[in-house]
TrEMBL record:
Pfam families: Glyco_transf_4 (PF13439), Glycos_transf_1 (PF00534). The keyword ATP-binding does not apply. This is Glycosyl transferase family 1 domain-containing protein. Keywords: Membrane, Transmembrane, Transmembrane helix. SUPFAM superfamilies: UDP-Glycosyltransferase/glycogen phosphorylase. The chain crosses the membrane at residues 88-110. Residues 175-337 form the Glycosyl transferase family domain. Residues 13-165 form the Glycosyltransferase subfamily 4-like N-terminal domain. InterPro entries: Glyco_trans_1 (IPR001296), Glyco_trans_4-like_N (IPR028098). One of its GO terms (molecular function) is glycosyltransferase activity.
């Protein structure tokens, strides 16, 4: 099959990483895969897999283009899609390309990697989005909750659940990153420094326990609009001496190998890749209970799930694991099972089947 996969950019992010897995996996199975990205001003964070053709065009967002600017934008996008000669298009969180597919009468599959219940759109955008997703062959989501929500409120979208894959770690020696101090143990959190990720709540939880664990540090890796605010909060809470803020790193594998516990404080999630990756490296987890972690983490087996907004309980569960190395090891061994529970093979099978059905 000729399959065109579309995403805004290959900048850092979970959906972008999964897109590279999908393109590379389908190409390895003998399909002719084109990866189309829509903003050439953003540098790639991930490499394009072998055997995948890359097309990168420059399109202003609909918001920047305005209504009248949206018409030439759609024309350019339609030409770009047609030039890839697809039999089917798979779009990750890029609704605008669906209009081009609809005009070209190309079947398309739309993948939403966010918690659909927490998305906000203008009325005009909602109308357009509802129309285009109603014409999709399938709309794939990352949780059964989202599937039920869509089936109830948007049955024309024809939702299907496809979980993100967890890949086994490469068996490479990874030296300890310079920012991880020798002799210290680490709680790791990774993500965009934005309200959704809840790092303000993680810092508040850390304040409650850090004095009891002088040999532990909290390492937060990411960048985003709340960076200055979060660093200021760490100062206000007087935890700046045991909290490290680190810019995004390409080789997270080296980090996972040298930390001891993963914490997730998100207010909402899709199906977080960083959580899957951390568990594949044998890291036990403490997470607020939201969509994504509620399926990934088996409470009391490979981590702890905590009721949303109960930062005192988040702190208590982190402390429980921080003081018990045997429990961390036990949870960590179970966490490695994530690569079987959500294998890349199952993921590729699911998308390959949908693509085949779409072109029939």
């Amino acid at each position: 099959m000729r399959i065109t996969c579309v995403i805004g950019t290959l900048g850092g992010g979970g959906a972008e990483r999964v897109m590279t897995y999908l393109c590379g996996g389908l190409a390895a199975r003998g399909h002719e895969v084109t990866l189309l990205t829509l903003d050439d001003s953003v540098p790639d964070f991930y490499s394009v897999p072998d055997g995948v053709r890359r097309v990168n065009i420059s399109l202003p967002t609909f918001k920047k283009a305005g209504f009248w600017g949206g018409i030439p934008r759609l024309w350019k996008l339609t030409r770009a899609v047609r030039a890839t000669r697809p039999e089917v298009v798979v779009s990750f969180m890029t609704v605008s390309v669906l209009a081009a597919c609809w005009l070209l009468r190309i079947p398309y599959i739309y993948a939403d990697h966010l918690d659909v219940r927490h998305l906000a759109y203008s009325l005009k955008w909602k109308i357009l989005r509802n129309f285009l997703l109603g014409k999709a062959f399938r709309v794939t989501v990352l949780s059964e909750r989202d599937r039920k929500f869509i089936a109830l409120y948007h049955p024309r979208w024809k939702p299907a659940v496809i979980y993100n894959p967890a890949l086994p770690p490469q068996k490479n020696f990874e030296p300890r990153p310079d920012f991880l101090q020798e002799g210290k143990k680490y709680v790791l959190a990774v993500g965009r420094l934005a309200k959704q990720k809840g790092f303000d709540r993680l810092l508040e939880a850390w304040r409650r326990i850090c004095e009891d664990f002088p040999d532990w540090r909290l390492c937060i890796i990411g960048a985003g609009p709340e960076e200055a605010e979060l660093k200021g909060l760490a100062d206000t809470l007087d935890v700046q001496y045991c909290v490290q803020f680190v810019a995004p790193v390409k080789n997270l594998d080296a980090v996972y190998r040298h930390v001891d516990l993963y914490a997730m404080s998100s207010r909402a999630e899709g199906f977080p890749m960083v959580l899957l990756e951390a568990m594949s490296f044998g890291l036990p987890v403490v997470s607020f209970n939201c969509t994504g972690p509620d399926v990934i983490v088996r409470d009391g087996v490979d981590g702890f799930l905590v009721k949303q907004n109960y930062t005192d309980r988040l702190a208590a569960k982190m402390a429980e694991l921080m003081k018990d190395e045997a429990l961390r090891r036990q949870f960590g061994e179970k966490a490695r099972e994530i690569t079987k529970r959500f294998s890349l093979h199952k993921y590729l099978d699911a998308y390959e089947t949908l693509c085949k059905e779409a072109v029939k």
